[in-house]
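@channel sequence for tomorrow's demo:
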Amino acid sequence: MGSRVLVAGVGMIPFTTPSRTQTYDVMGEQAVRAALTDAGIEYATVQQAYAGWVYGDSTSGQAALYRVGATGIPVINVNNNCSTGSSALFLARQAIEHGIADVVLALGFEQMQRGALAAAYTDRPSPFDSFDTVVHRLQGEGDAPFAARYFGGAGREYADRYGMDPAVFARIAVKARRHAAGNPNAVFRDPVTVEEVLASPQIYGPLTRLQCCPPTCGAAAAVLVGENYARTHGLRTDVAITAQAMVTDTASTFDGDSMLSIVGYDMSRAAAQQVYQQAGVDPLDIPVVELHDCFTTNELLSYEALGLTPEGTAEKFIADGDNTYGGRVVTNPSGGLLSKGHPLGATGLAQCAELVWQLRGRAAARQVEGARIALQHNIGLGGAAVVTLYQKVD
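structure tokens (generated this afternoon):
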């Protein structure tokens, strides 16, 4: 391996609803400029860029970056569903670590439309055909949006397996809003009660509307550099990526009989285990995590997939307050996808920004005191799971 990878700068813009959004190229430009300013470098210094987005035309990454500068560097567009932002980060980290470049930009943006996610093309095979075959076998068909059927079905399976009251999921939505209250970049910052969450329109299985992340628009970016380059050029060296893994689906997704595998539980667990092994870290020693809470059900499943609590104990984990301030690990201090929002291409890099701010001690009202390591978890159906471990550098 080559150079140690440092996060020299991060930037994001406040997330918003589709009715209030700017265009994707404008949002992307703003996030990049914020990250460059944070890093203290000019765009001309960047040697490669990886731009992530899901809904848009080819070379949308160039359209956003050309607003910052047309410098002739390689620009690689990345599309990996909801894990797109962290996939761009994964590629940028590899380029630095293996000595291909010294300064690499990872950008993610999304200009979404109102309403639930839907297929963009109906005249060709869907990437989800093989997943749908399993879902239909396990729980039949339904009229709810496909993602809600997937994650709602997984949550229902978990609750049935462990005899858990599905109302437990609603407590995660309440926590998300409470955390988001301290985040000026979050879409939804008003508090809600468990009763209000449960009374919102029912979507599928245990999921109600307030337990589903909203369609969101936004952008985020990160500047990665090699340690030697940073020290030579006087850049900040206080946060490093110490371990990272990307895992895609294995046979267990399609050969098993569990909705948990369909929504990425196995991928998440495998990626997390690789990261813990790389870094020599025990998950019980991690004080802050940004994880993929596209639905309340997936946040609960992710607690166990990431090893934050043993399998079958998530209900107690929540009841004891071990998922928030004053507990064992603060999960989604930003408010997560449920309250901060989920602009698909930007999500992974917004998670990166939040955790870098946490390790720098710059998270204001959201600050997790004394945090020196932080974990990021980002998944995309279809599928890919990316887990990243950050460490404060003295």
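heads up for whoever presents: The first helix runs from residue 24 to 39.
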